[in-house]
Amino acid sequence: MSLDLLVAILMTIAGAATPLLIAGLGELVVEKSGVLNLGVEGMMLIGAVTGFAVATSTGLPVLGALAAMGAAALAAAIFAVLVLTLMANQVATGLALTIFGTGVSALIGAPFVGITTPTLGPIFPDFLTSSPLLRLVFGHSPLVYLGLLLTLAVWWFLNRARAGLILRAVGESDSAAHAIGYPVLKVRYLAVLFGGAMAGLAGSYYSLVLTPMWAERLTAGRGWIAIALVVFASWRPGRMLAGAYLFGLVMTMELQAKAAGFNMVAPEVLAALPYIATIAVLAIISAARRGGTAAPACLGKPFRAAA
Amino acid sequence: MFETNRRRLLAGAAALGATSFVGLPARAAIGEKKDKVKAAFVYVGPVGDYGYSFAHDQGRKFLEEKLGDKVETSFVENVAEGPDAERVIRQLAQGGNDIVFTTSFGFMNPTLKVAKQFPDVAFDHATGYKTAGNMGAYNSRFYQGRAVLGTIAGMMSKAGQGGYIASFPIPEVVMGINAFTLAARAKNPDFVTKVVWVNSWYDPAKEADAAKALLSQGVDVISQHTDSPAPLQAAEEAGVIAFGQAWDMSSFAPKAHMTAIVDHWGPYYVDEVEKMLAGEWKPRDIWWGMEEDILEMAPFNDAMPEDVKKAAQEMVDRTKAGAYDVFTGPIKNQAGEEKVADGEKIPDADLLKMDWYVEGVQS
Amino acid sequence: MMMLAAPVIAVALTLLVGAVLFTLLGHDGFGAILEIFVRPLFNPYRWQDLLVKAAPLAIIAIGLAIGFRANVWNIGAEGQYILGGLAGTGIALATLDMAGPWILPLMLVFGILGGMAWAAIPALLRTTLGVNEILSSLMLNYVAIQLLYFLMRGPWMDPEGFNFPQTAMFSADQTLPMVVPGTLIHLGVPLAAAVALTAFAVMARTVTGFQMKVVGLAPKAAAFGGFGAASTVWIALMAGGGLAGFAGILEAAGPFGQMVPQFPTGYGYTAIIVAFLGRLNPLGILLAAMVLALTYVGGESAQTTIGLPAAATGVFQAMMLFFLLATDILVRYRLVSGRAAPAGVPAGKSEGEAAPSGKGKAVAA
After folding, report:
1. For a surface tag, which of A195, A212, C203, C330 has the fewest beta carbons within 10 Å of its beta carbon?
2. Contact A252/A40 with Cβ under 8 angstroms?
3. Residue B75 DSSP symbol
4. Number of folded domains in chain C?
5. What sign does the CA torsion over C326, C331, C337, C343 have?
6. Could you tell me which of B85, B114, B112 has the C-alpha nearest to residue B9?
7. Hey, of B1, B6, B7, which one would you mutate to test binding to chain C, going by the most C CBs within 10 A of its CB?
8. Which candidate from C164, C182, C303 shows the least CB-CB separation from B77?
9. Which residue of C has its CA nearest to A228?
10. How far is A15 from chain B (nearest CA, A)?
11. pLDDT tens across B41-67, in order?
């Protein structure tokens, strides 16, 4: 295997992993606060179309990415009001959000079909990407580095920052956290908005970096994979990083193997593999903890302060 | 065109039952002259897919443009193949349409069911194999375009390797891969087509990654039988050549886009509706191509060398004149055994269920 | 009364906001409402479409609602629907050359069993290892789709189908009969009504129904009453899986008449919306399924008559659910202020009509 090929493969893996990582980290924080938002796919689509629309209109992809975060956070706010203030069921509201995002993005995006956009491509000067090894370090979209930094930041936040510890407390036992005097709803609101912004950013990765265009359902179900990866990572940022890159590796190697003429495994088996692996991880972790799970204890359950 | 066996007939009869609909809006019978025709279209994807369904919708617009106020059109997009399609088709038939075009393979059985219930409405189904007294079938010889792409690939590829991003191994896709490879090997006998199946018609991210995988394996031509422009964009970034699918996609990859197979359904739609207006519509089972102008090549990229342009144009001209068919022997299969003897042509019936690959295909 | 008022308010708000929103987006907002929500109701041809579309949604939603009431969150109905369809199709393909009135019932039974078997995986994981059923059942949906693709592409492909990935058409003895001659109303439609009535009676009159409600409302009381957490999970998932599987084979043997890769169209997810819109009440679900069916059928007409894009249907469905979930709180607050709710029991649940807010923290976990 030549160096060029190896670098090309590694860069593809990073490209496939980054949006899953970013959206997944957002959802991870949301779930750590005890909220399950199944609307990731919908928020990603809203982010993708907003990012594309703003980037093509202004010529500034960075502005597009920021707008994507804002628009998806706005969608997340609908979810937050419903499940936090109005205590609606989270599963149903999340599904509704995905349906909403799919529909709204298609409506907004109709005038943007069939054109391309300035991309959020490599940021380093050319001389830094002249050789394959340099390219591996400097040749990515800024979002790839952002994904790595974000992993570190989320890890630090959840494990070292006081606010992060409060967020975890809220997710593990809302009533206890409330009794101590932590603002449960405020924490969850912020977490949900953060999750939305990250989903939006991940969505814009598709429309501004990976496949610079807009078409209906551009993200093709990646939001659901991000949700699966959060579970696969058993709610840990480090494992989220590993999971996203592992997923990118498996998908890329499958395509590489096919391109090289190897077709040993039925494609359906490979496609089902991430989900089977996620179930297996869930089962193994639960078994190891003798009946306990790694999931935040309050995941998916509404909180209502006792009057 | 194709015989149905006994089992199918029984099943069909059972499914249809003795359904009848009374009190439908008054509508001139199929065979009568009309002043105006109401035509409806059913699409499997969104018209905003910039691919297969988009191309059909361009055909609808072409029809409106050509026939003006003699035709009134409408469409339903994003229709799932199955009971939803049956409901939509029936709704359109009840809605006073004279002719309904159902544009995806999976609409075949639903169209047949509804056609039996509405003998006064004409139906045309794309890319299938069943017909009825008021249901025609139409298809395009996409492979003729694939052969042109193969010619360009064979002449322009320095590596002698082309990448082919494919959706599902159905006959149409298999046919396309074979046509592309045969034409490329006619120019470069060592040409190899590397096929990657992505098991989806539309998954931009996966299509882009498949293109990257092929590129890293050394191909310098990308061809695709999936719907998104993502592979083209990957080719543009890598500085190799590629081709559009279903429509001119050069706006996505101005340098890489050599040409595209353009599904130009318009002339067929015009022909059908004109027959309807004249009271001469009869169900046909047509498999048209370049000769009938429903398949076109997008304008060749200026970057294409003159000799390649010439060869590609010559192939288009000869195909239009009926003087060229890519599936003419000798053709060997992947194992190198002769499948088609010198000078023989593969009959249409065999093409339509093609499930083997020619020599040079690596899949 | 407020139990009924919330959905009505939600639909009314959807119509109002929808009309304004689509006008702002440059479409005919009022026309959209008229075409989607009103016109189909006055067109007798659309009635049968509504019934046929609503039947599978209602059957799945009823099964899910039984679980939701007990705080068991099965969101794997899509996969269970597919497995039901596949299990019944397996029988159909094995009996293609046979005849007899026993074939169709056997297919239906296997459909139910297929759905149950798929739901047994999350049930087993939850009761033995404590694995969250939301996540495991969701993951299994994707596995089910790939299983379907595999069978269509390979082992079950119709040898005479021109190499297209789909099975042979089912024979007469394998296809659902029409119950109203001259229409499309197949056996699945009255069966959906029968399922709703049975579920209503079971929930209202039997010990099992009482168990499911009590576990959802007051888990501690349920434990005192001797209702096992494990048995509740199993009952919930078997009901959900069995009915989803039943809906699957009814669709396969009914409107489809064969198995195709396009078989799953998201009914398993839509049914969750239906279950909530119907307030987890089997009879309410029947009505909710009709309303959802209306958005599909009406949405299709609106495309042809006023050129409204297909995406609008999804926006309307989402808005309707948003508004319903939002108005739910009004119901609850009213009841809370009206009579002091006992601590530990979520307000508004005394009649078991409202969605469990899940304040009482689930069973196992």
Report:
1. C330
2. no
3. E
4. 1
5. negative
6. B112
7. B7
8. C303
9. C139
10. 9
11. 999 988 877 889 999 999 999 999 999
Q: Give the range of the structural domain holding residue A250, as residue numbers without chain letter.
A: 3-288
Q: Where in chain B is the domain with CATH 3.40.50.2300?
A: 26-140+265-292, 142-262+327-362
Q: Is residue A303 included in any domain, yes or no?
A: no
Interface residue A278 vs chain C (CB under 8 A): yes
C348, part of any domain: no
Closest CA to C111 of C293, C287, C263: C263
Spatial separation of the C-alpha atoms in residues B357 and B363, rounded to whole Å: 9
Q: What is the pTM of this model?
A: 0.88
- Selected residue of A255, A262, A264, A273 to mutate for chain B interface (largest B Cβ count, 10 A): A255
Q: Which fold has domain B26-140+265-292?
A: Rossmann fold (3.40.50)
Number of domains chain A contains: 1
Q: Is residue C361 part of a domain?
A: no
C253 → chain B, closest CA residue = B15
Chain B CB contacts of A259 below 8 Å: 163, 194, 196, 210, 213-214, 216-217, 219
The CATH number of B142-262+327-362 is 3.40.50.2300
Mean pLDDT over B197-213 rounds to: 90
Q: Does C171 touch chain A (CB under 8 A)?
A: no
**pLDDT for C226:** 64
CB pairs under 8 A between B and C: 120
Q: Which pair of structure tokens corresponds to residue C135?
A: 């996540």
In a mutational test of the C interface, the residue from A268, A298, A303 whose CB has the highest number of chain C CBs within 10 Å is A268
Is the complex ipTM more than 0.95? no
Residues A121/A141, Cβ–Cβ less than 8 Å: yes
Q: Does C163 touch chain A (CB under 8 A)?
A: no
Q: Is residue A297 part of a domain?
A: no
* Cis peptide, bond prior to residue B330, ω within 30 of zero: yes
Contact A255 B362 (CB under 8 A): no
Output the pLDDT for position C27: 84
Instruction: State the DSSP H helix or E strand holding residue A256, giving kind and residue range, or none if neither.
Output: helix A237-259
Q: In this structure, is residue C257 part of a structural domain?
A: yes
Q: What is the CATH number of the domain that holds C86?
A: 1.10.3470
Q: Are B153 and B162 in contact (CB under 8 A)?
A: yes
